[in-house]
Amino acid sequence: DGTEEGDFIDYDYLVVGLGAETNLELAKGAKEFALPFNTLDDVRELEQRLQDIEDEGRPDVSIAVVGGGAGGVELAASVADRLQSTMGDLARGAVKLYVAGSDVMEDFAEDAREVAREALGSKSIEVLTNQRVEKVSPERKEGDETGSKYSVTVSAKGQEEQQEVSYDLVLWTAGQRATPLSGLSPSSEAKEPMTIEPTLRVTNREREFALGDIAGMQFPATAQVAMQQADYCAWNLFASIHSEPMLNFRYQHLGKLTTLGSLAGTATLSLPGVGEVTLKGPVASALRKLAYVYRMPTNQQRLKVGSEWLQNPEMWVPPELPKDIKDLEKLNPFVGAPNLDKLFDEKEVRDALQGFYERIQAERAKRV
Predict the structure, then answer these.
(1) Distance between CA atoms of residues 360 and 252, nearest Å
(2) Rounded mean pLDDT, 297-319
(3) Using an 8 Å Cβ cutoff, are 285 and 264 in contact?
(4) pLDDT tens by residue, 322-338
């Protein structure tokens, strides 16, 4: 990023895995005035915006979250918990969730959707279904040059007239898409998913592989798919270098996990011979956190993430407790604990790659 025209990076083999980005072109003004939730910069910007709202302490706070998928539901729940923890009853009903379809998390099992609806209701989050945000624009009052609030234009299914609603902050999670690829010869830009073979190799490009959303395979656009593809891609890259036979990617659906606050969540697991089973509450929340830590590439990163969570009461203490109680260090034995992730070094990265190789080699041996 930022290279001048004429600058190139040579490579022997290339793996493309750019992830996804929020499509802010779905509504006029969303790109300029809505805040996505995709990058570390987005997180920092949201933290600052929420801090400003909390400092003002107004009783009429209003925040719109656009997008009824898992990302929008999780974000709405987290923001509501945060405001309840810092502002108490002033934040009740502050968060509105806009859903273009008829229900939240439509690609999840009905049990999981029901749990999500109950959790959102318990946090006083109003879910507005069949309502599409068409436009986001700043509100400018007399004497206010920059505009401190935003107007959201909404069209409801079956109604001709559009409605305008005022919000302090508009968060956008709707319309995830593959991050566009530019600068890869022979095409100057690939806005659509790349065409790849079952081995994850780019069609007609022997030394290029792709995984994740940009790969364009007929699988859900989720991190679970991309992480499974990474194992196969690592083996096929090794196999290509050493003239070994490559493996076709086979996706194994393990279930779907969501967080609905510090101690709430859903976990829909695919159990052999049983089918899908949905768990909820603290158990599901713990499974979600454990799965996240487990998928870290190295033990160093696992310890780093785990220790940071344990030192942060927001991750494991009920949001109903007053902030001054949660902040008491004497109630948290993990605050001030040594940084255990330093016990491991970069050797863990090499060990992780070796593990990928051994696992896929064992899988290949079963099929021979």
Answers:
(1) 14
(2) 75
(3) yes
(4) 555 555 444 455 455 55
* Owner of token pair 């439509």: 106
Spatial distance between the Cα atoms of 323 and 90, rounded to a whole number of angstroms:
14
First CA to last CA across the chain, in angstroms?
Answer: 43
Tell me whether strands 275-280 and 265-271 are parallel, antiparallel or unpaired. antiparallel
Buried b / exposed e across 197-215, counting CB within 10 Å, b at 16+? bebbbbeebeebbbbbbbb
Q: Taking every pair of C-alpha atoms in the chain, what is the biggest distance, in angstroms?
A: 75
The CA distance from 140 to 138, in Å, is 6
Q: Whose CA is closest to 199, among 15, 4, 2, 328? A: 15
Q: Is the dihedral of CA 98, 103, 107, 110 positive or negative?
A: positive
Structure tokens at 340: 């255990």
Amino acid at 366: K
Residue 61 and residue 54 in contact, taking contact as beta carbons nearer than 8 Å: no
pTM of this structure: 0.78
* Nearest in space to 223 (alpha carbons), one of 192, 198, 254: 254
Q: What residues does 140 pair with on adjacent strands?
A: none
In contact, 103 and 147? CB cutoff 8 Å: no
